[in-house]
Prior knowledge:
The complex is a heterodimer.
Chain A: H1 3-11, H2 14-21, H3 25-52, H4 61-89, H5 91-95, H6 98-119, H7 136-158, H8 173-179
Helix pairs in contact in A: 3-4, 3-7, 6-7
Chain B: H1 2-17, H2 19-26, H3 30-56, H4 66-94, H5 96-100, H6 103-128, H7 134-154
Amino acid sequence: xxxxxxxxxxxxxxxxxxxxxxxxxxxxxxxxxxxxxxxxxxxxxxxxxxxxxxxxxxxxxxxxxxxxxxxxxxxxxxxxxxxxxxxxxxxxxxxxxxxxxxxxxxxxxxxxxxxxxxxxxxxxxxxxxxxxxxxxxxxxxxxxxxxxxxxxxxxxxxxxxxxxxxxxxxxxxxxxxxxxxxxxxxxx
Amino acid sequence: xxxxxxxxxxxxxxxxxxxxxxxxxxxxxxxxxxxxxxxxxxxxxxxxxxxxxxxxxxxxxxxxxxxxxxxxxxxxxxxxxxxxxxxxxxxxxxxxxxxxxxxxxxxxxxxxxxxxxxxxxxxxxxxxxxxxxxxxxxxxxxxxxxxxxxxxxxxxxx
Lengths: 188, 158
């Protein structure tokens, strides 16, 4: 059993086919995904802007974190559920899509950035909570998050385009490797 | 009404014939790249609008005054709106006559017009006066929601 096999098995499920072929179901899920983007990434940007010291300088950082977090979590849950459904509707093509793969890696990196921030500079929040411009490590976390989420949005939007799809050959070997394409053996 | 429709139709045809429209149509990558910038600006404007609307609803940054929050968020609302309008117009020129026939596009344009006027008049004044008015926030969210929803459905050929 391979991951590609798992994707193929998913694609055979009636609900996957139904969502893929539905006239309104798929667009509605995609709309919800974009709408939740406003909530989740939008509020993440607000927090990042505070961390970088670019705006909301008079609001204590801990207050921004505490008050925004529940809404970020809500937005994140909606994003993950709608995102999983979008994958579920088109499993094989998504799995073999370079932008989808890069997006997953970037999501992990974004998670690591949060973890490093929380277990590091945020533990000493009392000493810089009211600083208009937070310490370098906090500012770095903010800039890193801004960059990562812009790249994640970029990859997410580009999944829709088929430039590097496996069924569009010939592709450079690096593309086929990164996308995990299974190529038919060439006739001699 | 027919006169307005006529003007809009001619404007669509003119937009599509501009060198910008032709350049975007003829390029494989221009449309997706502009679309990405449009989407990234959507996230930014979403956050900047929501943080104030949530405060008006009594949610989020409750310890900070509405006026202060609105003042801090304003440059990001205006900045991302400018990016959205510029990229949005570029996307429009590449398929203006298709947009003309799209119900979703007109829902978006009407919502956008109302949302912009509302944001820079009523909402701005209420926030500056430090009134945490819930109705003002609900109307704002509804208008911007219409803009985002209509926008996404243009792509589905609605």
